[in-house]
Amino acid sequence: MATIAPLQPDHAGQIWRLSEQAYPGSFHLTLQDVHDTLADLAPLENYCFGAFEDGLLSAYLMCWLDTSQVEERADETVLLLDDIVVTQASRSQLIALLRALRRAIVARGQTHLAIEGTHRQQAEALFNTHPRVVQLLGYRQAATHHYFGEREQEPLCWARYEPT
User: What global pTM score does this model have?
Assistant: First the structure.
């Protein structure tokens, strides 16, 4: 059984290796980018969690406080769900990661914040075919915008989830 724990800068190497397996080249960040992202987050802004099996990262979720990507709401603080990597072998850990995220949101008194993020088609399909996953977080899908990512060279979906 996996242990869910907050991600820290010293986990950057494991995060980077797992993301290298999950993403095509256009999505790759450098190891330094991953480290710097985690190092730059203040403790109460960091909503990043990993699933560890025998000390090795098997799945992760990266989320932090940011501002809305909606032009009319540019000053609104939101939770930016930046990245979720759950492999076929670690798919059952998605719920555990989302529960950890929910506990952190509640513990920090931030249940009023919307969640925004950009999904690849696989992630969008996962969330759309498992609405209970979003409900588990205490949210409902409020908006989506489909577009073609020029840099990524694939269809993407921006989504906003609002508290229920």
Answer: 0.89
